[in-house]
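Handout, tutorial session.
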Amino acid sequence: MDANDVELKKELNATLQARRELGDEYESALVDSFLEKVDQRIDGAVERRVRRQMAEQQMVVARGSRGPKATDSWGERFGFGIVSMVLAIPLSAIGGGIAHLPGFLVAWAGIVGINAVQAARTNPGLFGGRRRKSSQDSEWED
């Protein structure tokens, strides 16, 4: 149970106790008062949520529309490279043992391809996907 829930439960109990003491003639006012407090709590929660989402959107815009990725860390990239090299040894042996040089080349083409895809995924623009605009480039295309 959240701290706000505990406070709201206390408010409800206090409202019910006041109703018992004051009688039926004040019931409408007590219910309205309690509902106003609930409404304020809901408005506060919605406002906090909207502010948090706005801040997250501003961070995405500030990063150049590039959100954080779990694979952006150096350790994960290094780990991927190590695993790739460790698996390259048996793949090279199997490919070379079964199909000799063509099998060896196919195994290494697969290893290089997987690493190229991983590099392109974690570094968009690595293979010329994005080009920086120089001061000599014109906004008008001929």
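The second record follows below. Compare its token runs with those of the first.
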Amino acid sequence: MTTTPRPTLTLSSTVLDAPDARELADFYRRLLGWEPVQEEPDWVKLLPPGGGSGLSFQTAKPYVPPVWPAALGDQLMMLHLDFEVTDLEAGVAHAVAEGARPAEFQPQHDVRVLFDPAGHPFCLFVSDQVPGEPPAISPEWVAEQAREIAGQDRLTVQDAVASPDPNGAARQAEPDTSS
């Protein structure tokens, strides 16, 4: 019996449905700092700057957000995204400032479940924490951090290139010295 060799398969992208692909892609662009490599009216693909698998978004008008945690009969999530962060509180504050919403139920001390603007759950986690009860995240603290991050004058590479200064030179993005 002869077997056909397995073809080379490379994960190119994970695709998320949304009521508006462009809006959801813009959220993840701001969250991750990834740039679009493909944009069509109902499709956007983002890739990380160093290469690797990306995220794609497609408009699906009948999209129904999942319920998390789900109960019998609820719309189930089919998958979720995990993002490792070095500082959990700062990661949550950044995500909230960009439009995410923290879930009420937090299952672990080193993981935070949030919802993107279309309602997809995603997790931020740190890997070198000690086991224990999930620390409470004060809604006031998250709101304060989100306001602070949103109030920062952030300059994107596209803005710097597209908006030359009055002398005709492109503006230079200033390094973030707040850390």
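Points raised in discussion: The chain has four helices and eight strands.
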